[in-house]
Hints:
It is a single chain. The chain has 253 residues and is α+β, with helices and mostly antiparallel strands. The chain has 2 domains: 107 residues, Beta-grasp domain (Ubiquitin-like (UB roll), Roll), CATH 3.10.20.30; 118 residues, Orthogonal Bundle (Fumarate Reductase Iron-sulfur Protein, Chain B, domain 2), CATH 1.10.1060. 27% of the residues lie in helices and 15% in strands. The chain is built from 8 helices and 7 strands; from the N terminus they run E-E-H-E-E-E-E-E-H-H-H-H-H-H-H. Strands 2-1-5-3-4 form a 5-stranded mixed β-sheet, covered by helices on one side. Strands 6-7 form a two-stranded antiparallel ribbon. Helix 2 packs parallel to helix 5, helix 5 packs antiparallel against helix 6 and helix 5 packs across helix 8. The N terminus is likely disordered.
Amino acid sequence: MTATLEAPSEVGAIPSFDVTLKIRRYLPDDGAGAPEPYWDEFTVRAHGTDRVLDALHKVKWEEDGSLTFRRSCAHGVCGSDAMRINGRNRLACKTLLKDLDPSKPIVVEPIKGLPVIKDLVVDMEPFFASYREIMPFLITTGNEPSKERLQSAEQRERFDDTTKCILCAACTSSCPVFWTDGQYFGPAAIVNAHRFIFDSRDEGGTQRLEILNDKEGVWRCRTTFNCTEACPRGIEVTKAIQEVKRAMITRAF
């Protein structure tokens, strides 16, 4: 559908237009066998500065209340509204309509590689199971410290990039290896392992490297850079994975 601009009613007003969302829908099993996914189209009035999340809200609140998707903070912090928009993993709350082509239907699908529960909602448990397995917490030995563990700016910088992960699964669900092998740890788990392996205060690096030195671990990465391109926080995911591989070989971290 062609986006038709509406003349603003007053000076400085932002023009609105019609935009069509083509959404992949899926209903849960009703006992009669697993239903097939199908496509549904909705046309809503929007502004270029609106986000895809805003358009989805208009569909749900004004046209079809059964449309199901996750969202929480709506500011790119919680990571709950990751989905495929025009074939790319993005956060719906960070994707502006003006940055897409509103003259064509905007295609919205659930992220790939995880079981779909309903519409745009996927089962995140396999993703979080891999995350938990790499022990995403500080591991230390000895007595409880009597003061804070000090760390220099240089030591913090070593792993600062990977602290930005919001666990949205955009990187993992953009990985072709993960699509075909659900046992692969995936980029997000490796990124969060990196965050602790290179933390000067942590003493569990060797344990994490042993966990990732598995047939479904870090060596399954094929360096396609999909994960880096998909990350909404700009984390250099592929670089972090390569650094973990290097640490695996050299045991220097």
